[in-house]
Design a protein that fits this description.
The complex is a heterodimer. Chain A has 2 domains: 54 residues; 193 residues, no CATH class. Helices cover 36% and strands 20% of the residues of chain A. The model of chain A has no long low-confidence stretch (mean pLDDT 83). Chain B has a two-stranded antiparallel sheet with strand order 1-2. In chain B, strand 1 and strand 2 form a beta hairpin. Chain B is globular and about 65 Å long.
Amino acid sequence: MVEPDWNPWRRLLALPNESRTKTIVVAFLVASICALLVSGATVLLRPIQTANRAAEEQTRVDALVRGIPGMTDLLTQSGGTLSTVVIDLENGHAASGVTVDSLDVVLADTSNWTTLGPGTDLAGLGQRPNFAQIFLLRGGDDISLVLLPVTGLGYGGRIDAILALRGDMNTIEGIAITSHSETPGIGGRIEEPSWQAGFPGVELRDETGDLRFAVARAQASGPYEVDGITGATRTGRGITNMLRFWLGPDGYGPLIRAIERGEF
Amino acid sequence: MATRVDFWATLTDPLIRQNPVTLQILGICSALAVTTSLATALTMSVSLTVVLTLSAVIISLIRRHIPESIRLIVQIIIVASLVIVIDQVLQAYFAEISRALSIYVSLITTNCLVLGRTEAYARHHAPFTAAVDALGNGLGYSLVLLVIGAVRELFGRGQLFGWQAFPVTDAGGWFTPLGLMLLAPSAFFLLGGLVWAIRSWRPEQVEAQEHLPPARTRPAE
């Protein structure tokens, strides 16, 4: 007579494959091990990926700056680099006590984020940070260029971009899309230089001060519009809303007025 | 197993005689999408071969304990997890190439080649044999990708691995790049040509005609 085996593992393995217990246990084990594997890889590799993305964003900012005519000359005049400023979005002044290095730590604290109400949340973000890192370029005493990082919601997910504004704070000098997840070949074309070439010279506000910027449905008409991308209506609307939000009162509006007053 | 497995044949058969792409026409979608340059084709080949081999070994190890009713789900979960891990590794260490490959690495999960090998072979064979078979199939896939990638990059840009093989006219050379080679249709043409070339060389690969044209009958007078 064979002794009954009390080792649960061996008893499980000895079960017929079709038994309900074994099916459930095998499914559970495979799923758990795979989950561990995937989350382990993600967590271990995240620091390297973040560093990669930061480096990529830096090259995009550099490319954006280099692509602006006359920019290289300006840069060499002003010492070769842009000055980086962390600003308080609430009042548009330079943030006190928050530096570029401590910005990540500060923004990890949810109390430094402002929840956006349905009426004000044009870009569909839900909340926005209270502090933002911007880049300024001075020509002489005046600001000649401002680089503003912006975030919005496109068709496939978040769109991150950097908007370059001329010193008059009303004319776009260029845009760089730093990350997006739009459909390749349709909305994904926002990362193509040919589409981004439509931005320089586009104006944001009319004489009365209303924000008029928009991505057109088709061809741009008037000085406030950029050509739309065929088949990417929702991506275009996302870009419109993103820039309208960030240039409006809840975004960089206070900063823009502060720069216009000559506070920077 | 009663018969001894010929490992060398298992490894080399899928290269040309049983090539998964040209004979079984599996994994076409990614073969078309990532072959615009040799660097992306090579990365994709290595990723697929690694995923295929690892999943074959894992599935072969647990082959006696996979319940029949959930075997496809178990296989897909294992393949998908390996693909995510590979994708994360690529994003961390080969960020540039990972961007060029975009979604196609994640789509290895749905590559019929991987599931086809695990389902048809690894489920019935010992881990080592399964690994050899998977490696052979991965290499067969890689061979096709590299051939098409080399032709497309050479004639589309005059380059090989980014090195300027032909001086292009823009830079004062004699070679005018064929823009078509960088578009998806050219991969279809090349793949079709490759299949035709292999089947003319090895006529035993030609499939039997599925439909015979109706016999001509003389119209009744």
